[in-house]
Amino acid sequence: MTALVAFADLDDTLFQTLRKLPGRDPADLSPATVDTRGEPHSYCAPAQTALLELLRLGAVTVIPVTGRDPAAMNRVTLPFRSWRVLDHGLTVLNPAGEPDAEWAARVTAHLTPLQDALREHTDDLRPHADALGGRLKVHKAHGVPFMAVLKHPDANAQALAELQTRWEAAVEGNAHLHVIANANNVSLLPRALGKAQAVRWLRDRHFPHATLTLGLGDSVSDLPFMRECDFALTPAHGQLLRAVAGLHLPQR
Ligand SMILES: [Mg+2]
C-alpha cells in the first residue's frame, strides 16, 4: 500500500503551453504533451521538472486530476503509472488504464436526472455563442453528456467574459449545475460531482492508509479537491493565488 499520494491537476500546474512561458529559453523546457499531430505542445519549466523529480525520489504516487478527456490524456507524454482522474473527475482510470466500473456506475446514475437542465442551458447559450464567434461543445463521459464547454477560436477574452456572465446568470440558482471558467474556456458542469468527489472516493477506496496526501492545482475550481488532501500546493502565479491575493478580507 502506498503511503504518500499526490493528486495533481495537469495543465498550468505541472506544465503549460509556450504562450504562458514568455521569455523562457526553449532549451530549459521539457516537453510534456503533444498536439493532435504529435508535435510538442506543452512544456515543464525547470521548477516543474524538479517538483516531479522530487515526488518520484520520495516514492510519491502521482495521480493526475484533470479536465482532459481520455484522448487528450493520451497526448500527455509524462509517465503516470497509477490511477488517473479525467473528465473533471467523471472518469477514473485504474492503473491498467481502464475506466473504473464502480465509479462509472455512480457517475451515470448521478448524470441521468441532470440531462434536461444540461441540454436546456446549453441550447439557450448557443445563439449568443454563435453571434460572438464562440464554439460550444457537449462532452460525454461513459457515453452520457456531462459538460458543455465554450471556447473562442481566437481566445477573445471579451467575448468569453460576456458569454460567461450571461451563462452564470442563467444557471444561477440551479442546484445541480454550475459554470466554471479557466483561461481559455468556460464550462457548464455538475455541481456535486467532480474532481473533489473523485479524489475523495479514490483516497477512501484505494489509498485508505495514505499517511500524506498532497493536492496540486492552479485554478479556483481545483480548490475543492485540494481541500480533500492534507496539504495543498499551488503555483505562485496561478489563478488560485491571484484570486486569493485580490481578496480584501476585513481586518480583525
Ligand atoms: Mg489547471
Average residue pLDDT: 95
Main beta-sheet annotation: 4 strands, parallel
CATH topology-level name of the largest domain:
Rossmann fold
The count of strands amounts to 13
Number of domains: 2
| Heterogens | magnesium ion
Distance between the termini: 45 Å
Level-1 CATH class name of the largest domain: Alpha Beta
**Low-confidence runs (pLDDT<50, min 5 residues)?**
none
Strand order of the largest sheet: 5-1-12-13
CATH superfamily of the largest domain: HAD superfamily/HAD-like
Describe the structure.
- By secondary structure, the chain is an alpha/beta fold.
- The protein has 2 domains: 4-90 and 206-245, HAD superfamily/HAD-like (Rossmann fold, 3-Layer(aba) Sandwich); 111-190, Aspartate Aminotransferase, domain 1, CATH 3.90.1150.
- Helices cover 33% and strands 24% of the residues.
- The chain has helices spanning 46-57, 70-73, 101-111, 115-131, 157-171, 195-206, 223-226, 239-245; strands at residues 4-8, 16-17, 30-34, 40-44, 61-64, 84-86, 91-93, 135-141, 144-151, 177-181, 185-190, 212-216, 231-233.
- The radius of gyration is 18 Å and the shape is globular.
- This is Sucrose phosphatase-like domain-containing protein.
